Every structure is written in C-alpha cells, then in structure tokens.
Amino acid sequence: MVVRSTRTGGTFVLNMDEKTLLLTRMLLARLERISADSVWAHRASGVRGTLLRLLEKLERGRLVQQSELKRMLDLGFFILEKTAEELSSRDQ
Questions:
Q1: What is the reported pTM?
Q2: What angle do CA 4, 8, 10 make, to 5 degrees?
C-alpha cells in the first residue's frame, strides 16, 4: 500500500509487494557476502543496515518513505555492480 502525504509532499509505503520483498531480501544477502577486502565493503554494510531498518519498520506496520526505499535499493545494486567490476579487474 502506498500512502501520499499532502503535508510533507512525500509518498510513503506501508507494506511491500511480494516481488519487491523478495528482491530486497536477495539484495541484502548479496551485500552481506561482499568481501571485507573490497573497497565497497564499508558502503555495502551501511546500505544493508539501512535496508534492514526499513524492512523492520514495514514489518511493524510503520510508514517508510518510498523515495528512501528506492534510493537504498538502487544504491545497493550499484554497489553490487561496482564490486563485480572490481572482482573482474582483479582477475585480469
């Protein structure tokens, strides 16, 4: 469910659809597996922590800003991409 706020002008999420929930959990698992040797490890840890907090809020029935959730998902996939590039360049 998506709720719009006229006071703050933001859009909030009350719960996630099953596909987004599955995608978020998959992303969390992948971010957790990034090697500590990676230059992206620290950033991945922060994004992972934020995503876990957002999921926890949703599970408790609290509103989460849709833009923040989307930004964290996008950032998580960006970090995965950069980590893959880093690994690829190491192998060459």
A1: 0.85
A2: 45
CB 31 within 8 A of CB 80: yes
CA distance between the termini of the chain: 46
Backbone angles phi, psi at 4, to 5 degrees: -100, 140
Segment 48-88, tens digit of pLDDT: 999 999 999 988 989 999 999 999 999 999 999 999 999 88
Q: How far apart are CA 18 and CA 85, in angstroms?
A: 30
Torsion-angle region of 9 (φ positive above 0: left; ψ -120 to 50: alpha; else: beta): left
Residue 57, token pair as written in the block = 């809020």
Tell me the sheet residues that pair with 12.
Answer: 3, 65
3-state secondary structure of 36: coil
- How many CA atoms are closer than 13 Å to the CA of 53, on its beta-carbon side? 9
